[in-house]
Amino acid sequence: MAGRGKLIAVIGDEDTVTGFLLGGIGELNKNRHPNFLVVEKDTTINEIEDTFRSLGSLLGSVVEAKPNEHDPPLWDEIDSRQFLHRDDIGIILINQYIAEMVRHALDAHQHSIPAVLEIPSKEHPYDAAKDSILRRARGMFTAEDLR
Questions:
Q1: E strands along the chain, which residues?
Q2: pLDDT tens-digit profile of 31-66?
Q3: What is the rounded distance in angstroms from the CA atom of residue 71 to the CA atom of residue 69?
Q4: What is the pTM of this model?
Q5: Contact 112, 6 (CB under 8 A)
Q6: Strand partners, 115
Q7: Which InterPro entries does the entry link to (predicted)?
């Protein structure tokens, strides 16, 4: 019996996420947390970053904060939505215009899994000059290699 494969996660606008959900990528992990984030006009950049980043990169700031007994359980919230921390996610698709909002977090991600791919949205066409993966790939080859 083959092992279970990895999931595709999506961070995007409503139209993009809805399209992928209709295509069948929507899943909940064992803690009932989805593999997608719909970014709306009232979604903060911190929410997008927190969903994307791994727990390890946020650990220092969480430990320094002294939790109050009246505060919500921060550990559960952080662990639940972070796609880099989840071992069941193999690819993260993110709308390119949203990726621009959290470019520093994307550039800090150096691992091959999960792979982060920037995709166009309905209102924002794809711009290859802004794609960090494509820039990294171009840096691996010389002009002679591409002939």
A1: 7-12, 36-38, 89-95, 115-119
A2: 788 888 899 999 889 888 888 874 223 222 222 333
A3: 6
A4: 0.71
A5: no
A6: 91
A7: ATPase_V1-cplx_f_g_su, ATPase_V1-cplx_fsu_euk, ATPase_V1_fsu_sf
CA contacts within 13 A on the Cβ side of 123: 6
pLDDT in tens, 99-131: 999 888 888 877 778 888 999 998 988 888 887
For residues 88 and 21, what is the distance between their CA atoms, to the nearest angstrom?
Answer: 17
Q: What is the DSSP string of 85-103?
A: T-TTEEEEEEEHHHHHHTH
Task: Please tell me whether the peptide bond between 73 and the residue prior to it is cis, using omega within 30 degrees of 0.
Answer: no
Cβ burial of 51 (10 Å; 0-12, 13-18, 19+) is buried
